[in-house]
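Lab notebook: predicted structure, single chain.

Context: the supervisor wants predicted structures on file for every construct in the current expression panel, including those that have not yet been purified. This is the next one on the list. No modifications to the sequence; it matches the entry in the shared construct table.
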Amino acid sequence: MSRNTLGPIQGLPWPLSPSELRALPPDAKRASPLPTQSEIRKTIPLASGCQDYFPAALAAVAELSFWGNEKHNPGEPLHDARGKSQDDADCLLRHFTDRGKLDEIVVNGKQIKVRHSTAVAWRALRILQKELEADGAPLAPGARL
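Prediction complete. Output recorded below exactly as produced.
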């Protein structure tokens, strides 16, 4: 694995090993996931290359985050309680099997319908985020370990 200093934690080798990541002070782990160099930042078009490609899908994922938090963390601020679910790949494939169909979750007695494909996207994003963090990306601000 090659290392450079253009990673999201400026001035540190990238990617960081798990032991190097654990040794960082907490504020370093909350650094921007984007590089500081302008020319490199321009290769990461978050609006035109992601939000503009998938606006409805990202809104659906955000809504699922809200309702999932209401179900699993009632009364708490919105966050990804990572300790409550460790089987992301299995969950993703269960939802993928039922893609094109609606799922129903119950929150405070209210039935909420969500697409299984939305849960697939949410789980895929979570898996990717955790992989990137394992390679040295900063811990997601909404994550709670």
